[in-house]
Amino acid sequence: MFDCGMHMGYTDSRRYPDFSLISNTGDFDNALTCVVVTHFHLDHIGALPYFTEVCGYKGPIYMTYPTKALAPLMLEDYRKNMDRRGEDEQFTSDHITECMKKVIPVDLKQTVQVDKDLQIRAYYAGHVIGAAMFYAKVGDAAMVYTGDYNMTPDRHLGAAQIDRLQLDLVITESTYATTIRDSRYGREREFLKAVHTCIAAGGKVLIPTFALGRAQELCILLEDYWERMNLKVPIYFSAGLTIQANMYYKMLINWTSQKIKETYATRNAFDFKNVRNFDRSLINAPGPCVLFATPGMIVGGFSLEVFMQWAPSEMNLVTLPGYCVAGTIGHKLMSGKPTKIDLDKDTQIDVRCQIHQLSFSPHTDAKGIMDLVKFLSPKHAILVHGEKPKMATLKERIQSELGIPCYCPANNETVTVPSTHYVKADASETFIRSCLNPNFKFSTYSSVDKSYLDSKYSKAASGLQVSDERVAEGILVVEKGKKAKVIHQDELLLMLGDKKHEVQFAYCFPMHTERLQKTRTEELPSADTLLCDLDKCTLINQLSMKLSNELSDANILDLGEQLQVESFRVSICSKNSCPHRLSHSVHNDSESVFLCCHWSLRDEKLAWKIISIMKSSSPHTT
Amino acid sequence: MKFTCLSKGGGFHFSPCHMLNVSGFRILLDCPLDLSSLALFSPVPVAHQAHESLDTDSVIRKKQKIEKTLDANDLVHAEPWYKTVKNLHLWDASFIDVVLISSPMGMLGLPFLTRTRDFSAKIYVTEASARIGQLLMEDLVSMHMELRQFYGPEDSCFPQWMRWEELEVLPSELRKIALGKDCEELGAWMPLYSAVDVKDCMRKVQTLKYAEEACYNGTLIVKAFSSGLEIGTCNWTINGPKKNIAYISSSIFVSMHAMDFDFLGLRGNDLIIYSDFSSLDKNMENDDTYFDPVTSSSGRDDVSNLEEMAASLLKDDESAEEIEKLVFICACALDSVRVGGSVLVPIDRLGVVLCLLEQMSLLLESSSLKVPIYIISSVAEELLAFTNIIPEWVCKQRQEKLFSGEPLFAHVKLIKERKIHVFPAVHSPELLTNWQEPCVVFCPNWSLRLGPVVHLLRHWCSDPNSLLVLESGVDADIALLPFKPMAMKVLQCSFLSGLSLQKVQPLLKILQPKLVLFPKDLSCKIQISEANMIFLFSENETLRIPSSKESTDIDIATDLASKFRWKTFKQETITRLEGELFMDHGKHRLLSGFQPANSKQQRPLVHWGSPDVKVLLTELSKMGISGTIKQVTDDAKSEDDAKSENAAAIIDIHDPEKALIDVRETDHIKISIQIIHGREFILYT
């Protein structure tokens, strides 16, 4: 099972996945080999403690080191918020601890043998620290589940990285299925400018965010800016949580981008200089400041508390993440420019502050998705984690542009995808060795192959064709109760315990020398009617010339007394009674000469063609 | 497969080195430096006196080889050279295809190799080993540079001390270091590589994570598995199309710092190369207090269950013993500090140092003594910072620290609290302003010839209250020669640096290899029950290991296989192959590929079997061709014909035309045809 998240928009049982689809009886341990969690965002891990502690899954759970380290913070934060909102608690703090104990941490690219058949491997996904794409392989069937990923590096994380793999299936996120984003630097400048203008005017900046990921990214951005502009305005982190999170980030610096990674020895980039802890008394303290407050999207908690205080002043600024779930205050602020927000029946907030929307996102855009799918070129693709109409558009693009069958199943829908299978065979040493050396056969194209008419192949269609005979020299032998064996063709007879035999044809036929003489006199004026040894050669020579006229592409070898074309050999028969001669041979006069031909089966057609050519040059055909 | 042990190494700092030929590729396993031979050279401070005392008297005395006790003047007073693996230079570096490095110590000699012309091998190192190894090399270069400032630049490429007449007058102990036992190791000496060489070398290194698959040339898959010896050290598995090999270097089941020995990852390999020589070093030190004789492990044989056995391997309390050692060292240090002496710890084992730092500061804190701990090394700061950002490479208990948000090693906190001070060099200004005695100093190098240790040892060697903590394996007599007379206390301590012999047998039982390559030197100390599957190796001897598999596995894609046209015989079904053969990740794969349409017709038919003339005749008559068998042929006299009835025969065909079919024992059928008008003969045999 890939990921075990929850829906942020629901507060009832719909927020959890329908686990009954895995097993009706609740026997999850037998139904699942393992659970793989790609990263610590709640929509990917939120239901995990519920699944393990309440539903009772006891099998292995895999996630990367940073995910294992940071997930409990995330889950605890969420649980507290649930608590605060007075929802019925689905899992307790102990549940989270117990659940995390079952997690087996993995490193990137580490190949983990889960059981006899299943192998999994994590690849760097960008997105948030520790986010991973997971490769899974069972037998010959292989797939990649991307989780959330980012194809462009951001302030603190690198871009997603994966090997070229042979895959039957790629399941990719599609948050931005149709969006193409431009460079993030412009957007970052916009954000910094907005912040700077606000604090320069003495205003306060509220950045509601989750403790992990976005907070660190923006903080690196601000630290850098503060240093460059020599600003002294304090940056606060609301709870101890974010400070604690920085501790983790420092140890996990190897999971960040190359540039940040290199700072570990001198000054760890997550050792923020200007960052201080915030406490409530500072809310209404005079002077400008920047405050990171949890939770993001202003769903409640401290960020809401501060928002209520700061919103009524025009001097202040609230920056919102690129995406807010419907129903949150963040969502209300983003849709239109409200001047008043109703918190509940009795409370109303005056909103006069400026609103800035952060438009950079840790998700890949449509181009990134297309790039990844194209790079991996799986046999099938499935889109998840997106909005239905946009996914349909992307699905069409993948199918038409990349020619990969693509699906975007709805919740609870099952898609069946065929997987690769291989037949195992033993290959002999000779075959493998012969395959190591190229064995090209050259032949000319007689007909133009229509399927290769289009594009670049059209040129190759008329000309020399090169084929490699290496594989075709192999023979697959299957015997009952034995493993299939691949051998080289030369080994076949040895293996069958039989001897090879050749089928040879022989044909001895007369040819009138008169006719020959005639032709000879035409070409060679100094004629001799007697057939001596020297004359045989001349005769053969003549035949050779004749043949080379008729058969332009055959390789005719003139060996003096005999003529050879492939396996076809012709010579003048000196025997009185050749067994291959017509028994009722009519002409016995000295004028005619016998030509004795031998050839093997494979050149049968060629042989008859040559014979007919030779016969056509003699007066009698029978 | 061929295997040659180039060197069995010596101790923790000098790993064994082997050459392996597998699937046509030449693989070098480790490329260490023998830093213990630095003992031959004199550290700088005595060099000056030496020149004065080099009068004719002493030369004559030396020439006459009057045996006397060694003194500092006997050492070589020159810019030190470094001893590489003695047999490695006999091999052409350009023919090496792959280099596998299993520990940071195993890569110290690598720049010598990578700077040779035409060197093109792929070098695989674990990420952590590469980083630590690089820092060790950089430190070595910087320490050497410091030393060189005293000697000035070398004027010739062939140093004075290497001349034969100079070598001859060396005392026998030192001559053994210079020339080796058999006087053949002089060629192994090299002047040290430069910082540029190190940088160059690191660029050629491909780093891996534990259990990451690296595919060389599509044929070999190499994977590193934790060996537990040190942070980043590993054992290797090499999987080729016909061989599955596991290489076991010095390993420790349960470590206090590095990730445990991942022996389960080595399962499923046919061949195991056992290259943990650590128990050999142990036995040489008879005065080693921690040495326990190898006892028969018969009691453990009845553990049949593999999982139980694996658990029992991990359970053994070697790590507890290691902690005791650390506590003992700290207690000795505390005693020294109490009486106003300082403690010098020139130990260069990262894991041990990190654990010792934790123990030491804990003990100092509880004793309420305000004694500073100094770490002096050009790379210490980076090394210490590095050890705290690699949770993926440390032992389970320390990984738990990550998950609870604490630093992996306590030194982070201690540095912040200014209980530990880190300086790049003895002469750094911060050190001079902070210096306070008594103190505890950790610094390189364990050979006592290079680095800050030389200065500090000169400083304290006459103080009877001070304490020097040495690793065992260092020849203390020669090592301390330049610092004599020593009033300082010396504590020599051995640390666990490999598998104990009684664990070898259960380990092999779990791994179940078909073949084991085992060091000859160790074989007498251990009984391995399956004696027939063991090959013993010794230095510079090439072993040929027969291939265990006759044939190679080939995977045929099912969609391709379903298109094959089969021919069925009495027992076998055969088909000619199609498609394209790929070699990927050590696997031969036959996938459907582009097939030219006309290629099939060109292929000649192959006929076999002994043709039965009667059957042939009936088949022919079915087609409307009639004939008679004429048994007698030209070759009728030959004995073969008499034996087999239908081997030689001539069939006369009368209808529709005249023809002759000649079947002979020489395995061919000759058909004489009078006229056939485009008719094809189909022969059934």
UniProtKB/TrEMBL annotation, chain A:
Domain Metallo-beta-lactamase, first and last residues per copy: 16-203
Superkingdom, taxonomy of origin: Eukaryota
Assigned keywords, A-Z: Hydrolase, Nucleus
Biological process annotations from GO: snRNA processing
Gene3D superfamilies assigned: 3.40.50.10890, Ribonuclease Z/Hydroxyacylglutathione hydrolase-like (3.60.15.10)
Beta-Casp domain sequence ranges: 215-333
Localization per Swiss-Prot or TrEMBL: Nucleus
InterPro entries: Beta_Casp, INTS11-like_MBL-fold, MBL, Metallo-B-lactamas, RibonucZ/Hydroxyglut_hydro, RMMBL
Entry-linked SUPFAM superfamilies: Metallo-hydrolase/oxidoreductase
An annotated GO cellular component: nucleus
Cross-referenced SMART domains: Beta-Casp (SM01027), Lactamase_B (SM00849)
GO molecular function: hydrolase activity; RNA endonuclease activity
UniProt record similarity statement: Belongs to the metallo-beta-lactamase superfamily. RNA-metabolizing metallo-beta-lactamase-like family. INTS11 subfamily.
Name of the protein in its database record: Cleavage and polyadenylation specificity factor subunit 3-II isoform X2
Organism name: Durio zibethinus (Durian)
Automatic annotation (TrEMBL), chain B:
GO BP term, pick one: snRNA 3'-end processing
Keyword Nucleus: yes
InterPro entries hit by this protein: Beta_Casp, Integrator_9su, RibonucZ/Hydroxyglut_hydro
Subcellular location(s) of the protein: Cytoplasm; Nucleus
Pfam families reported for this sequence: Beta-Casp
Entry GO CC: cytoplasm; integrator complex
Protein name according to UniProt: Integrator complex subunit 9 isoform X2
Gene: LOC111297071
